[in-house]
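Q: Focus on the shape:
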Amino acid sequence: MKKQLFFSILTLLGTAVLNAQKTPVSSASYDVSLAIYSESGNNGVAVAWNSEKSLYYTSYAGNASYPIEVFDVYGSSKSSGELGADIRGMWYNPSAKRLEGIQYNNQGGLFISLAFDGTPLNNNLTDFSYGMDGQAVATYDAVKKQVIFVQENQVYMFKANSRKAKKIQLRPAAPEIQLVQSPLWTGVKGYELGLLEAGQKVVYLFNIKTGAQSARIRLDDYTDTEPIYAFNVSYCNNRVWLYDKGTRTWYGYLLFAD
């Protein structure tokens, strides 16, 4: 028991050191793409990463019949089916070993159990509301187990099923820039939260303790002619993801160099 506890502590310390050593790149080109199989849906809402099964999951906002699709680490399609809820955010919870999300208009949550191979099984909907704007997109901090929203450049961090939030005001270096209010939670020390500049291919990273801007990263090779002003941006597996409506493809950009 003592030996197991010792190795668990070493693992946690090693993870903390690796996160501390990560530094953001100044510009990034995509290295992974996820081509959507279904023809339903227009606004991509999330890409989630299951590190235990090395699988990506994608979802759309707008309708419960829109797809949830599964891809392997190389971007090859593994499965496609109906999501079962109109959501505004989706993530993989490694503690619960399931997919989770927030429904439109704060009507409740979405919980998706997974088969042994990582593909979706059953949906469970809840009616708990965090009281945020109906279109607000949520993400998740798996370390501190917090559901995260951003509205008017203010970060709201909720413990699960709590209506009391910790709030942090973000401070971009150029206050006049417009940022897409879809939170990109990296968890990397000093660069914990990111936001995409609206209509541009630039991601800003922020220190969650101070709210100050800590990095600016240009995303190259993104050719969609329709600029992003809402949705269509996500973060998982060390990558920010942009959704191209023309090609119906998510493009993943690696943001950190070890």
User: Anything to note?
Assistant: The chain has one domain: 23-257. The chain has a mean pLDDT of 91. Residues 71 and 77 are 4 Å apart (CA to CA). Residues 23-257 form a domain with the Neuraminidase fold (CATH 2.120.10.30).
